[in-house]
Design a protein that fits this description.
Distance between the termini of chain B: 23 Å
Order of helices and strands of chain B: HHHHEHEEEHHHHEEHHHEEEEH
Radius of gyration of chain B: 34 Å
Helix content of chain B: 25-40%
Strand content of chain B: 5-15%
Shape of chain B: extended
Structural class of chain A: alpha+beta
Oligomer: heterodimer
Radius of gyration of chain A: 36 Å
Number of helices of chain B: 13
Number of strands of chain B: 10
Structural class of chain B: alpha+beta
Largest sheet of chain A: 10 strands, antiparallel
Number of strands of chain A: 34
Largest interface: A-B, 108 and 120 residues
Strand order of the largest sheet of chain B: 1-10-4-7
Distance between the termini of chain A: 57 Å
Helix content of chain A: 40-55%
Chain lengths: ~1100, ~425
């Protein structure tokens, strides 16, 4: 669906975004405001519908006729109406009308649903504070600047700046499940100066102006400033960030009510801006269809041209042109010759236009739409944990699943479970390994800890405090939001499961985090004492910085900075001598497949702090690039820290991830893992899930391998050349042969990290940079597995784009679960989202979403394969279907031959699903769009041509004597046509029956039913004098025809001849397939014997606990 | 995970040996041809199934589904859970019949079909050959008999004068009946589109309103120069074949010629004559009055109501006319003129000399056509047409030929895979 209005709106929003907007709270103009320019904002009406009642028909028609096929048929129809043609306009008009109507009804219905949803949203009642009174209004009446009251469990009607809430600290809890899928509560804050304004009257007295940026779609970015004019004329300015902004669509939780001022309304809210249709992905099959259409169109044009020429050659003989028995009207004689030729050409075109199937698009679409149900119905995709099955967001790509060449997968949450468990930590180089037992209240001083070696007690405590303080975890309690949470019923909620695992880990060691109250973090230490830390500043984790920091003030008044982050970002920022001991641990842990984080701290002197505080405040007040400025300040602070230790968190592999990867490999797919994780971690995961085998030779292109030399780029170049030599030498043949022989040859795996990749992709100014890229691509193509680690989300998309643009444009599939995978999912041909723990953003943006990675196997190998085969057949069949009376022609495409193929295309399973999943090699057969290449296409076309000849000439010779009955009565041209047509219908349907290898009762019903329906229809059509027809030419032709034995015999013969090659081919294929399978199975037997031993030790290695013990 | 299906396949195919199906009939032949009997199961689609017959029902029972699950969409919401329904349909596990065109089925089928086709072909061929046909081209090209005078005369003039000529022939033996008299025209494009649509079925069905207002398709034969509606309108009607024939029999040499009665009825389709074509309602019991105010087609010598003196065979329901109005499919065509089935001639034309009197009216040389008059008997399959018989014979032999080729190919493959087996 084209979200036309949105795009326009986005465009205009784009223009407006420059600069800021000023909003006056409560729409009370500030008297002292310098110059009050009345800014006009849109109202709070949400319009997601495309059409109104009035413009539906013209607009919808316009949109539909923008499609080439529809437009073509419209032209044909118009030609038929205007020019005198052999076929009546009804023949092309009716199917077109049918197609257009069905589509229009579908779109109309969808739009009606949208209208209804819009209305529901727009007419909802909200409370607005006007003149110190609560006024009930419809949601659409909210204006920017209005103060809105929202009750608990209500959704926000527009984007609000939180002014005050019923809690004393001015916080409220919000879930943004409908926006980004994260169901945890997030805390939003009010500006300190407005916290107290808890009533309608007080809020009404507030005089303040909010300056903020123009609306933009990023949900997590907002910069603004509120200037409060309380009593003094001098305004107090406070900064506003995303934590102050309540987004439309989010729901208020655990807070009784809040007051907020509307800043963005209606179509300018972040939700509306984000509600833009995804760019429509077109499948390779559809491209093939379009190509075939063009071929047929040119055939059509040539045919029409040739026929026109022949006609005029024939007419050259005067007695052919105008014999005495068939004279022209005066008008015809007077017609300009060229014009006449042109109209003749058009009529021929119209006559032959049936070689381009009208109903194909409808049928294809229906097939896709209905077919997608089978995916969501499949109970194998059902996951009990989240109580959901697979979800199909786009039905256009079903068959694309059978076409995938490259699979890009995220690691965290996709290959791995993303359920974290704190495994061990290391403090000053001493390892602490907890007994993994999740019993609450087990937090005794020296109970569960196994000390291998003891670090200094104070360091130990510092480390644990750091774990307790340096995070953004929140506590969700079941009851009130007060401090009485001494009980063990703490539920931690955080945006990343890492953090929860860490906090839980700390709890196990005796330090329990009790929550944040009024800016103080409360921690219960090992001695059951409560420690309060004033939270001064937090800089959240982001994927660029790869670390987070907090600045807290202890009760004693010391100011501490705690930082935790990936080793690569932390190590350069700590004093060198501390690194070594920890580094060994970190690397060891990473090898074992754990996620490691390093923890560091720094004491900040009070005067230093003041400076830092000022800088931070400044940065926070900045309207633009706040994040960057903050990051920069923190960058300055986070130097010379002291490393305390490191943590290791285990990320469990998903169920059957390894089997799935193996199956995908066997299916000839190339699996690339793109992860933001550390190389070592990622590598171990890859080993664990058998992406790399022990026999795989790894080629590393990482900072580590490159850093050895002075000039990075030279070294990189060397490496690239070297690797290429190796690979090219190894595989002199093309990639296609690689696919076949991958089992026998040495496998190569490539590991590359983000920084190297960026070096390659956007490497500097020297001329060889392009060269790098092409060499790199060559290397990638030769490797069976590629691991890209340390990837930023955008880099993931970059990689996908790079592969997508390779020669032969392979089909790519991306699978991921987190927000960081969205770019990759959107970029690739098929995007699959996993309904994981990192929110639903990925699955919302994907084309398909499944609960688990293992489902990919069935999705690709079974569903993808089947859909591809089905649609390929469908398309070919449509082009194969090769004319006559108007009604017959019309019915032909719609009824006689569409339904059976539809049923076929929905139900066919030429190979059993189980076989498909267990034998991934079968997938190779259909990769590369092999069924819709020119070969099969020509085969079908020639088959159709052959059959056309058989039909025509068979009947032609039969009609050498047109008396075909024992009473010697003579048959005419309508009988001729009817015979041809009957043979055609039977042949086409029986051919389908031959191709059907999976006969369910539906197939039986539809195939035999359509033949029966044809016969019935023919009788019916010929049995009655139709009063609305001018010419009763089909009258009784069919019945009369059936009374002739010769015609019966001829029909049988012709059908048989037409099907004969097909039968022959099938039988031969069966012979060959059987012997091929024999060979294959023999080979496979030996294969599996040889590959097994190499797999097994790996399994042992990765799945036993062996490796965890040091 | 990767298991070796090798042995399984082999055992399955061995099990295939014990299959009954068509083997019984073909076993001797196969024994002679192939080394191992019965191993001619050409295919099994996947090794996990096909334990037996080439075509069998995969018996996957419909698992008992909880109540209400048969309506998949409704129940999904009703139960609240999002678990997909476990029905055979939604899980794509409908019981299905998976036929396989294995050699065991197709080979006998090929042979059977081939034999049947050859049998049929022979039958068709002989019955077609048994049909007697006698024809005479009376186009009247110069020097081609006594019609050439008429033929030369007709040049360049559209409505020709009635020019009599005759065709003399003699039969040495009985021409077995019933005998039909056809006329044949060549190079006459009745299937031309402009020609084919130039008629008004509503007028022909006797609708008074349509009689006065012929359809536009009839132009230029829609209205006479005087503006009167032409009945019947259109090019087809206008070009009605108007040569007439009479057949005379001279029983004894030198004896008198006796007219052979020609039955001019029953030559059109029953439905055409009874349903599709009707005269307009009589006015005062007179057909001529009913047609008052209309003009005859320009080429016709007389109006439509005078086509025949027989009131049941005149006007629009004149059988000649009806036959003509059923346009032919090809530019050479035959149309039935009369049946000879009355009196002494019901068994056929006895031997003797005959004279066929022709009233030569219809000009064909203007468009390079020919006209022929044909006497023909008929069989159960219609007129003389060897095509169908020959086609059946060809296809039948082709079937048998392919059958043999397939057998050879099959046995070759069989041997190969046997060798592969042996090597293992």
């Amino acid at each position: 669906m084209e979200p036309q209005p949105f795009r326009e709106l986005l465009l205009c929003a784009e223009e407006k975004r420059v600069g800021t907007r000023t909003v006056f709270v409560g729409n009370h103009p500030i008297s002292v405001a310098e110059d009050y320019i009345a800014q006009r904002f849109c109202d709070n009406r949400i319009v997601s519908s495309k059409y109104t009642f009035w413009n539906f028909i013209p607009k919808n028609l316009f949109e539909q006729f923008r499609r080439i096929a529809n437009f073509y048929f419209l032209i044909i129809f118009l030609v038929q109406v205007t020019v005198d043609t052999p076929t009546s306009p009804v023949t092309s008009g009716l199917p077109l009308f049918f197609v257009i109507t069905v589509t229009a009804i579908k779109q109309g219905y969808e739009d009606w649903l949208r209208h209804r949803a819009d209305k529901e949203v727009n007419k909802r009642h909200v409370y607005i504070i006007e003149n110190a009174k609560r006024v009930r209004k419809e949601s659409e009446k909210i204006k920017v600047g209005d103060v809105v009251e929202v009750q608990a469990d209500e959704t926000f009607p527009c984007d609000l700046i939180l002014l005050s809430s019923c809690t004393s600290d001015g916080t409220c809890y919000v879930t943004t499940a409908s926006l980004d899928g994260e169901s945890n509560c997030k805390t939003h804050f009010a500006v300190r100066d407005t916290i107290a304004l808890g009533t309608a009257e007080s809020i009404d007295r507030l005089r303040a102006a909010i300056e903020c940026e123009q609306p933009q779609p990023d949900l997590y970015k907002f910069v603004g400033r509120i200037s409060i004019y309380s009593n003094s004329p001098e305004a107090v300015a406070r900064s506003l960030g995303p934590e102050n902004l309540l987004l439309k669509g989010a729901t208020l939780k655990n807070t009784k009510k809040i007051y907020g001022v509307a800043v963005y309304t209606g179509m300018e809210t972040k939700m509306a801006l984000n509600y833009q249709g995804k760019s429509q992905k077109r499948s390779a099959v559809e491209k093939s269809i379009n190509l075939f259409l063009i071929v047929y169109l040119s055939i059509l044009l040539t045919k029409a041209a040739v026929c026109t020429i022949l006609k005029y050659v024939w007419q050259n003989t005067p007695y052919n042109d105008e014999p005495w028995y068939n004279q022209k009207t005066q008008k015809e004689r007077d017609t300009f010759k060229v014009l006449k030729m042109f109209t003749d050409f058009l009529s021929f075109m119209v006559l032959f236009n049936f070689i381009i199937p009208v109903s194909m698009y409808v049928t294809v679409e229906m097939q896709k739409f209905l077919g997608s149900f089978f995916i969501s119905w499949d109970k194998d995709f059902y996951d009990e944990e989240i109580d959901e099955g697979a979800l199909v967001n786009t039905s256009d790509l079903n068959e694309e699943l059978g076409q995938v060449d490259y699979v890009f997968t995220d690691k965290t949450g996709t290959l791995t479970e993303n359920s974290m468990e704190f495994i061990e930590c290391c403090i000053d180089g001493h390892t602490y390994k907890g007994v993994i037992q999740e019993t609450d209240g087990f937090s005794q001083t020296d109970g569960p800890l196994t000390y291998f070696d003891k670090a200094d007690k104070s360091r130990e405590e510092l480390f644990l405090r750091a774990l307790c303080l340096c995070h953004t975890v929140e506590i969700k309690t079941n009851d009130a939001v007060d401090g009485a949470t001494e009980s063990a019923e703490l539920t931690y909620v955080a945006s990343s499961p890492d953090e929860i695992a860490l906090v839980k880990g700390a709890k196990k060691y005796g330090f329990t985090f009790l929550g944040i109250h009024n800016g103080y973090m409360r921690v219960e230490n090992q001695r059951k004492e409560i420690e309060d830390y004033e939270l001064l500043h937090t800089l959240n984790f982001d994927s660029d910085r790869r670390r987070m920091s907090v600045i807290v003030r202890t009760q004693a008044g010391d100011i501490l900075l705690f930082c935790k982050g990936a080793d690569s970002t932390v190590f350069p920022r700590v004093q060198n001598h501390e690194i070594e001991a920890t580094k060994a641990h970190v690397e060891q842990n990473a090898m074992d497949g754990y996620r490691t984080l390093c923890v560091a701290f720094k004491e900040i002197a009070p005067d230093d702090y003041e400076r830092i505080d000022r800088q931070l405040m400044e940065a926070k007040m900045a309207l633009q690039d706040r994040e960057e400025k903050l990051g920069k300040v923190f960058d300055d602070i986070e130097t010379n820290m002291n490393l305390i230790g490191a943590t290791a968190v285990e990320d469990k592999l998903q169920d059957q991830a390894a089997e799935t990867i193996e199956a995908l490999h066997a299916a000839g797919l190339k699996v690339w893992v793109l992860t933001g994780d550390k190389m070592e971690t990622a590598k171990s995961t890859c080993y664990a899930c058998r992406l790399f085998q022990t026999s795989t030779e790894l080629l590393e292109l990482t900072t580590k391998t490159i850093e050895e030399s002075e000039r990075k780029e030279d070294r990189l170049h060397e490496l690239l050349i070297e690797y290429r030599k190796k690979l090219v030498h190894e595989f002199p043949k093309s990639t296609r042969s690689l696919k076949k022989t991958w089992t026998e040859q040495q496998e190569y795996g490539l590991i590359i990290d983000g920084s190297t990749l960026s070096l390659i992709l956007n490497s500097s100014h020297d001329s060889s940079s392009n060269n790098y890229k092409s060499i790199f691509v060559q290397i990638c193509m030769k490797c069976t597995a590629v691991l890209c680690c340390r990837m930023a989300p955008l880099q993931k998309a970059q990689i996908v784009r790079m592969v997508k643009n390779l020669k032969g444009s392979p089909i790519t599939l991306s699978i991921g679960d987190g927000a960081n995978d969205v770019s990759m999912i959107l970029e690739s041909h098929v995007g699959i989202g996993i309904k994981g723990k990192e929110g639903r953003q990925a699955s919302r943006n994907s084309d398909y979403s499944v609960p688990k990675f293992k489902h990919l196997k069935k999705l690709l190998l079974a569903h993808g394969h089947l859909y591809y085969v089905r649609i390929a057949h469908l398309v070919q069949y449509f082009f194969y279907k090769p004319l006559y009376d108007a009604a017959y022609l019309t019915m032909y495409n719609i009824c006689f031959t569409s339904l059976p193929i539809l049923a076929y295309s929905l139900l066919e399973q030429h190979i059993d699903i189980d076989t498909l999943t267990s034998d991934p090699r079968l997938y190779m057969k259909i990769s590369g769009n092999s069924m819709l290449q020119w070969g099969p296409f020509l085969y079908w076309t020639f088959l159709a041509a052959f059959e056309g000849m058989v039909f025509f000439f068979g009947t032609y010779f039969l009609f050498q004597t047109s008396s075909l009955e024992e009473n010697a009565k003579v048959y005419g041209n309508w009988t001729f046509g009817t015979i041809v047509f009957t043979v055609l219908v039977f042949t086409v349907t029986l051919k389908l029956a031959l191709d059907t290898r999976f006969w369910t009762w539906i197939n039986h019903f539809v195939i035999w039913g359509s033949l029966a329906f044809y016969v019935f229809f023919s009788f019916f059509w010929g049995g009655i004098i139709w009063p609305f027809l001018k010419q009763q030419r089909m009258y009784f032709v069919f019945a009369q025809m059936l009374s002739s034995v010769s015609i019966w015999l001829a029909i049988i013969l012709l059908v048989f001849i037409s099907l004969f090659p097909e039968i022959l081919l099938i039988v031969l294929k069966n012979v060959r397939r059987r012997s091929a399978r024999r060979n294959l199975s023999c080979k496979k037997a030996s294969d599996s014997l040889s590959t097994r031993p190499s797999v097994r030790p790996l399994l042992l290695r990765t799945f036993s606990d062996e490796s965890n013990i040091l | 995970m990767v298991q070796s299906p090798g042995p399984a396949v082999r055992s399955l195919s061995r099990r295939g040996l014990q299959l009954p199906s068509f083997r019984v009939r073909l076993a001797p032949a196969l024994q002679a041809l192939g080394r191992r009997k019965g191993r001619w199961y050409l295919s099994s689609p996947s090794h996990s199934e096909q334990p037996g017959a080439a075509a069998h029902l995969r018996e996957e029972e419909l698992r008992p589904a909880p109540e209400g699950t048969r309506a998949p969409l409704a129940s999904a919401t009703a139960r609240g859970a999002h678990q997909p329904d476990n029905t055979a349909f939604t899980q794509q596990r409908l019981p299905a019949w998976q036929p396989l065109l294995s050699a065991s089925i197709t080979l006998p089928l090929f042979f059977c079909a081939g034999l049947a086709f050859i049998g049929l072909g022979l039958g068709l061929y002989y019955s077609s050959n048994g049909i007697k046909e006698l024809g005479y081209d009376y186009t009247g090209n110069p020097g081609s008999g006594n019609c050439s005078l008429c033929g030369v005369a007709d040049q360049d003039r559209a409505p020709p004068p009635s020019c009599p000529c005759a065709w003399y022939f003699s039969l040495s033996e009985l021409f077995p009946g019933p005998v039909y008299l056809y006329y044949e025209l060549t190079n006459f494009y009745q299937n031309n589109r402009r020609y084919g649509v130039s008629r008004d079925d509503a007028q022909l069905s006797g609708l008074p309103s349509a009689l006065r207002h012929p359809a536009n398709e009839c132009a230029p034969y829609q209205r006479s120069p005087a503006g009167l509606p032409i009945a019947p309108c259109g090019a087809i009607a206008n070009s009605l074949f108007n040569d007439t024939f009479s057949l005379w029999h001279q029983r004894l040499p030198g004896g008198p010629y006796v007219e052979v009665p020609l039955d001019r009825t029953g030559i059109a389709w029953w439905t055409d004559y009874h349903v599709k074509f009707h005269n307009p309602p009589l006015v005062n019991g007179s057909l001529a009055l009913a047609f008052q105010g209309t003009a005859r087609p320009p080429n016709w010598p007389r109006p439509v109501y005078l086509l025949s003196p027989d009131p049941n065979n005149t006007g629009f329901v004149n059988q000649d006319f009806v036959v003509w109005m059923r346009t032919a499919a090809l530019p050479w065509f035959r149309k039935l003129y009369a049946r000879i089935r009355q009196g002494n001639y019901s068994a056929g034309l006895p031997r003797g000399a005959y004279r066929l009197n022709i009233t030569y009216n219809y000009p064909v040389r203007a468009f390079g056509g020919h006209k022929r008059i044909i006497l023909s008997s008929i069989s159960w399959m219609g007129g003389k047409n060897p095509f169908l018989g020959i086609a059946y014979l060809v296809v039948g032999s082709l079937c048998i030929l392919t059958g043999f080729v397939m057998l050879v190919v099959y046995i070759r493959y069989q041997d190969q895979s046997d060798e592969a087996d042996d090597q293992e």
